[in-house]
Amino acid sequence: MANAHNRKRAPADDVSQEHRPYKKIKSRGRLYGPSNFPPEFWDNLSKVPLTRRALRELDRRNSTRPAPGPAAPAVYTTDLARFARHGGPDLRRLRGCPEPKGAVRTMASSRSTSSSRRTKSAKSTKATDVASKTKPTSAYDDAFELHAIDNGIYPEGYEHPDGRRTPEPNNIDQLLLELAATRASLSPSQFPDSAFRDFKKKHKTASESTVKYNIIPIIAGNTNIPNKRDLHFTNIQSITGGLTVKAVPDFFDGARLGDVHPKIRNEGEEGNLNKLIIPTKHTSAPVVPNFFLEIKAPKGGADVAQRQALHDGAIGSRAMHALMNYGKEEPAYDSNAYTYSSTYHAGTGTLQLYAHHVTPPAVPRGRPEYHMTQVKAFAMTNDLNIFVQGATAFRNARDHAQRHRGSFIQAANARARQSDVETSPEAEITVVIADKNEESTDEFVDCEDYHGSQAVGTEDYTAPEDVEEPALPQDLCAEDEEPSQGLFVSLRPQVNFPRRFYI
């Protein structure tokens, strides 16, 4: 037994797992220190929220405040006992005053205690210096929404200090009817209960990448609308003066670059909209984005997704408004929603749809105001019926965003071509040979008044009987279709006379 006991005991030179030396891993946060927003961001806030970054900014400002100069020495009585009984010197002026740098410690203490304190002080000073580094604010901070409000970007249900609530778009009723239009691809024969059970099963191991590539495609269905994922909007001009991060939608729809007239999209052209409608310098990326999706995994914050959608929707609304007013002397506002955003939270299986619109500045020479309105919300994992309703609204919103986008691009392109004709040094005069007895009428049609129709290469859906479908873009077509020659207006410059010339 003694031998067995000795065999179980580890030898003296054996290093056990308990006492094995280990390498201390420094956390990234301690190594680099936390970053913060620039001082201008905090100075421009109407109200500073109590957040960690706000406290770090307060510490940084306190650390840079100069120490107060020495006060004039007061004359005290030599009777120290009586002086102490009355409370000693008045130290109220020292409250909140930082310790002078390089101050000599005069208190008697052991050498180890003094060294420990100096080490902690040095670490604190280093952390404060690193924390002074700044970065733009993001939707992950509570101050982001307040900063957006200060810049005229109002979230869903926002109530102004004077009691006004953020308005709904003028076309909200029409929009709700359009979102509810049924789709053949979501009929019971096309999307049975087994497909819904498979959709729910995918939520059990849902990471954010799983949601993007396995769950969202079931909701979105098959379509040929140009789209992109996880693309930084590096070319878009900031709405908030550069104090917010660049938008990075998880998913967005847009038009092809070639659909937009070069005079509108190219930098260097007079009145170009490059910084308002071109998200990035990549030529393959969609332009004029006006449909967005923000995704969060089960552990992600739904409030963060909503703030990201607020930022995305304002960018899309501004792009659509810029196209609508391209070439016009004074901007017009119709308070209609032409931009949509959505959020999907995999933890609850909740899909939310929002509409965004622009209204005129509230004060003279102010900036336009951007509003976010929730139009639908669905618990997609609840049952098949609710899933079909949510997927229907999501797909219809994408289709109608494409229709609005194409319509505005078409109108802006027509104005760009018209301006080319007006500035062209050589204009072709059209002479009509006709019978003199024929009644003289004006038959010239302006490009802006021309309207055509074309089928979008997406899934079929049935609109309500009382809904008038908006005109589709003339220069967009499905990938497997050839553009119809009858839908395009001749680009030859012409001079339109009020009456015909007869020969």
Automatic annotation (TrEMBL):
Residues 280-402 form the DUF7924 domain. It comes from the Eukaryota. Residues 103-116, 124-135 have a biased composition (Low complexity). Residues 1-33, 86-135 are annotated as: Disordered. Pfam families: DUF7924. Residues 10-20, 87-98 have a biased composition (Basic and acidic residues). This is DUF7924 domain-containing protein. It comes from Neurospora tetraspora.
